[in-house]
Amino acid sequence: MARFRTRMALLGSAAALAAGALVPAQLAGAQPAAAADYQWVALGDSYTAGVIEAAGDTFEVPRDGCERTDLSYPQVIDRDLGSLIELTNVSCGAATIEDITYKAQEPIGRHLPPFSEDPDYPFPAVPAQSEAVQAGTDVVTVGAGGNTIKFADILFRCLELGSGSGGVGTPCRDALADDIPSRLTKMSDDYDAMLGVLHERAPHAKVLAVGYPTVIPKNTSKCRYNDWEQFGSITQGDLDWLRQDVLEPVNAVIEKAAGESDDTTFVNLYDPSQGHSVCDAGKWVDGVFTRFPDQVAFVHPNARGHQNAADHVASAILNSIGVD
């Protein structure tokens, strides 16, 4: 990221020097702010929006229930890019791919019973996120898929089935494994349709399909059973299953869809975040709780995770618009 910030500082300095050469000194202070060179629309679910307290403070007034936070990666990049790119961030917690493509969504805020209650819930519906993409949009980033396979529901079920197991066995895999292939097939179909809509709405835009980070380590022996700042009552066997048969295939679906769509690039967050899972000391994704029992995270990236995402997504944005 240091190289990225240096690059942007140089761009800013060059722009300032050029402006100074063209504008008389006595008028420089009176000039209106220049329009951004590129238009960027950020779409996605809670892994884009931020949502949890460990990813910063929400900034919408009044709240719309989408829970975009100021340390989420779109907002971090927006601050770093300065005036080069104008951001429209319509990402929303709990969004499915259909909510991005064509459906109005009823946001849930931080209403996640029995773990948390949101006093402002329910919230009015927000438009389908794709409506923010216009013919003049230059870059679209989208991070979605987890809610389409209903990953939160899977986690809830794994917590329930693992309770009282002593951490032994694979009760969640035994109950849910047969249903996962159909969920992944739906996700694949929905993702392809979404990319088609985005390219139709902004035919000249570069679309960056952002994957998910490492959530579960390859060595699940480091995950402590009944540690609620990790995966609570989910067994080690079920964690292995979730990583291999659910989360890694989700990223594979996104990568495949991006590879088959013109002007779409996959942004891999999984490999760079190895060693920073929920069960690692330097975690970039918080567990069921950030701080048990009063700060719920329900397995979402914290500010460090969003900074890592910002590094990789920003580089992909700059490459997509031809800035070296």
What do you see in this structure?
- By secondary structure, the chain is α/β, with parallel strands linked by helices.
- It has a single domain, classed as 3-Layer(aba) Sandwich (Rossmann fold).
- It is built from 10 helices and 7 strands.
- The chain has helices at residues 2-22, 25-28, 46-49, 73-81, 97-101, 151-162, 171-176, 180-201, 236-259, 303-320; strands spanning 38-44, 85-89, 139-143, 206-210, 264-267, 289-291, 295-296.
- The strands form 2 sheets. It has a 5-stranded parallel sheet with strand order 2-1-3-4-5, with helices on both faces.
- Helix 4 (73-81) crosses helix 10 (303-320) and helix 8 packs parallel to helix 9 (236-259).
- The radius of gyration is 21 Å and the shape is globular.
- The two termini are 14 Å apart.
- Residues 1-32 have low confidence and may be disordered.
